[in-house]
Amino acid sequence: MWPDDFAERYRKLGHWTGQTLFDLLSTAAERFGDRDAVIDGDARVSYRSLHERASRLAAGLHDFGVRRGDRVVVQLPNTAAYFDVIFALFRLGALPVFALPAHRGAEIGYFCSHTDAVALITTDVYDGFDHRTLASVAGAAKLIVAGDPGSHTALSSLYTSSVSSLPPGPGPSDLAFLQLSGGSTGLPKLIPRTHDDYLYSVRASAEICELTPDSSYLVVLPVAHNFPMSSPGVLGVFHAGGKVVLSTTPDPARVFPLIERERVTIAALVPPLALVWLDAAANLGAGLPSLEVLQVGGAKLLDSVAARVEPVLGCKLQQVFGMAEGLVNYTRLDDGDDIVLHTQGRPISPDDEVLVVDDEDVPVPDGTVGHLLTRGPYTIRGYWRADEHNRTAFTDDGFYRTGDLVRRLDGGYLVVEGRAKDQINRGGEKIAAEEVEDHLLTHPAVHDAAVVSVPDTYLGERSCAFVVVKDGMTAPRLRDIREHLRDRGLATFKIPDRLRVVDGFPVTGVGKTSRRELRALLRELAASKGTA
Ligand code: OOB
């Protein structure tokens, strides 16, 4: 975690206030009592009720055996139960490990074993997948199911009638949860965030985004992702006393009427969804009158798309460039078009330290593209239980190497120009090349594999697997590869969109597979064929 002198400074500056995430809910319940906190379909949950439900569930989870410091993998869709669960765990000081609904056996099994999780809290069936089947990969973690539990424990059975048995909660500098990193190497890294550090980013974000008790915030992205969780996200809304409106689909046909019904004022999207909404609204010939701010982040927004937001939807655009490791940048609501349409914003905090450096870690002048390094009051100093990886992912003086290539402009605004990390950003969903390659290598016909991004007009990027086939084996088809990876329990978004069989890979000066050259090869092929 942070060295003592930094921690002391962040406290002195008033960034770390000594509260926990459960305190955020307790305070909100006191201040906003009967006001709506969460809207899930026809169900409306008040602040008071959310506080009471979370407390009763905390007591029940404690009776079930969940203790302070324990890890609990949480995989829930955008439903009200999610909030009962996370606040119950925050109350106990047990750490949620935030999985996405799209994760399958490979990821969930790894999260459970890597964190020695005591429980996996998931749903029954969602998006055609029976999550109860994940019991087979959960190891020692006991399955708790929201919905029909089958042979497992029903989440609904764990709400006690009294909360008198609750032990003392965690301290503000304790870990609050483990968030997932987009990653670039083998297995997903876990990001340890403390109550103090996360709450600072939440409060500051709520202020930057000008949230008030009248804010109505729509969640269509997976609620456990850092963007809808805290930028300013659901937690920012709870801090401000507004209401969170949940949707399990981003489809305009379902969401536009919900926006109207709940007078949604702010929503967060990834660029491909922004495009879908813009086209739908343009077709309808109507904007979204209640919507004041559309936040777009998670992947680079094209200038041409950015320019359509205000004319078509009739609301302000806010670009958000953040990372679960910490640093979040926003364009401000009073910034001019030059900034809002062409930059990815500036950091939350005056105490976010940002360096833009060349390959030798030497700072480059403003306006020049370089690697973004950062350190600050809500940026982690290391991944969870990953000492070796941390030696290269952070500088000796604690700066996180984001892997992003940026240009810094006057006023500290950043423009994202590319990426140096081996990651594919598939419409905001991050794919670590090496993780998929490791799975590809288990295919009987695959001798070697490399996964790279291909430009895509809708998603920004898709993934392409290059494989070298073993001597004497028949080259697999894309369909075989996809089936193989699905059978291994890999989340669908990580399964390659394209396949190219090659004789060998270009290598870098040090003899590593050059993904850069493979990407260039794809561009050449696309240029010669008019398609990628
Ligand atoms: C958000 O968090 P993660 O952890 O899923 O991904 C972080 C990475 C960044 O390092 C960058 O490569 C990319 O996603 N990214 C963007 C971007 N926002 C994120 N690239 C270009 N333009 C943007 N606006 O994605 C995240 C976390 C909090 C708030 C918003 C996004």
Per DSSP, the total helix count is: 16
Strand line-up in the sheet with most strands: 2-1-13-12-14-15-16-17-18
* Basic shape: globular
Give the termini separation.
44 Å
* Secondary-structure-derived class: alpha/beta
Query: What percentage of residues falls in helices of 4 or more residues?
Result: 25-40%
Spans of at least 5 consecutive residues whose pLDDT stays below 50 are: none
CATH architectural category of the domain at 18-33 and 46-194? 3-Layer(aba) Sandwich
C-alpha-based Rg, rounded = 23 Å
InterPro entries: AMP-bd_C (IPR025110), AMP-bd_C_sf (IPR045851), AMP-binding_CS (IPR020845), AMP-dep_synth/lig_dom (IPR000873), ATP-dep_AMP-bd_enzyme (IPR050237), DHB_AMP_lig (IPR011963)
Pathway: Siderophore biosynthesis
Enzyme class: transferase
Pfam families: AMP-binding (PF00501), AMP-binding_C (PF13193)
SSE diagram, text form:
Elements: H1 4-12, H2 21-32, E1 36-40, E2 43-46, H3 47-64, E3 71-74, H4 81-92, E4 95-98, H5 105-114, E5 119-123, E6 125-126, E7 129-130, E8 142-146, E9 153-154, E10 175-180, E11 190-194, H6 195-208, E12 216-219, H7 226-230, H8 233-240, E13 243-246, H9 252-261, E14 266-269, H10 271-284, E15 293-297, H11 303-313, E16 316-323, E17 326-330, H12 337-342, E18 346-347, E19 353-357, E20 370-375, H13 387-393, E21 400-408, E22 414-419, E23 423-426, E24 429-432, H14 433-440, E25 446-456, E26 460-469, H15 478-487, E27 498-502, H16 515-529
The chain binds 5'-O-[(R)-(benzoyloxy)(hydroxy)phosphoryl]adenosine.
